[in-house]
Specification:
D-Maltodextrin-Binding Protein, domain 2; single chain; 10 strands
Length: 260
């Protein structure tokens, strides 16, 4: 190879390296945002994900579970970028521990609960007082020890004076989705379930909203994880779900999205 050809080869090789490097940078920018989210958010978040990804060029990866268990995972360093909780107290705990950026936190929804049953069982219960019926053997709720929707269900039973009457019938899901599955599989005739799951499954299930005064408000708060490497993208996701199309999707699934 003569010197002129050798020089041309070096220039071409260097140019190829630059193109490859630029391609790798683009790949890094199109990262995946990992979102830890309360189980009641499953239907809404899955629906709004496609438009968010198209608008922002950021892929979303969701981990749904009970708020308390997800908070424990974040405290132990789980690789999440955003935490969408179903109860403000867990976010406050993580702000205090330094795991959530306080300035990023905002209420993004207020949830509701109600009685849920298969459509074929419509009429088996119209209110909490009907849960004493001999036709109802099992009542499904999320575990109130770590699931905010379970806490709200237990509050409603206490406020109505029905907890002692039906406590022996209660079965506990790990989270609100698991509580719904108990109804879906016929393991429970009735459940006290998140309205969002009622809206998502209204073709095959009957849902009766309960009075909000029966329980403490289900104030759902979201924030960016402090050790996330994608904090700007995390904030973009938060902004998306409380404005525009994201807000409309949340409201479609029965959430009240507060004004800023």
């Amino acid at each position: 190879m003569n010197m002129s050809n050798k020089g041309a080869f070096i220039i071409l090789a260097f140019g190829s390296m630059l193109v490859a490097a630029c391609g790798n940078d683009n790949d890094i920018e199109k990262h995946t945002l990992s979102v830890a989210a309360a189980s009641d958010l499953g239907p809404a978040f899955r629906e709004l994900a496609e438009n968010f990804e198209a608008d922002h060029g950021i892929s979303l990866s969701f981990s749904f579970g009970s708020t308390g268990q997800l908070a424990d995972q974040i405290e132990n360093g789980a690789p999440f970028d955003v935490f969408a909780s179903a109860n403000v107290s867990f976010i406050e705990r993580l702000v205090e521990s330094g795991d959530i950026i306080e300035e990023s936190t905002t209420p993004y929804a207020f949830g509701r609960i109600g009685l849920m049953m298969q459509a074929t069982d419509e009429g088996i219960a119209d209110d909490l007082y009907d849960l004493t019926s001999p036709d109802i053997n099992r009542i499904s709720i999320a575990n109130p020890a770590h699931a905010p929707y379970g806490m709200a269900a237990e509050d409603a039973l206490i406020t109505s004076g029905m907890l002692d009457e039906v406590e022996d019938k209660l079965i506990y899901g790990r989270n609100i989705t698991d509580a719904f599955v108990q109804i879906e599989t016929g393991n429970a005739e009735v459940g006290i379930i998140a309205y969002s799951l009622g809206r998502a499954n209204e073709d095959n299930f009957h849902f009766i909203l309960l009075d909000e005064d029966l329980h403490e408000p289900i104030e759902q708060v979201i924030g960016v994880v402090s050790y996330s490497e994608h904090q700007d993208a995390g904030q973009a996701f938060i902004d998306y779900i409380i404005h525009g199309e994201g807000k409309e999707t949340m409201e479609h699934f029965g959430f009240y999205v507060p004004e800023e």
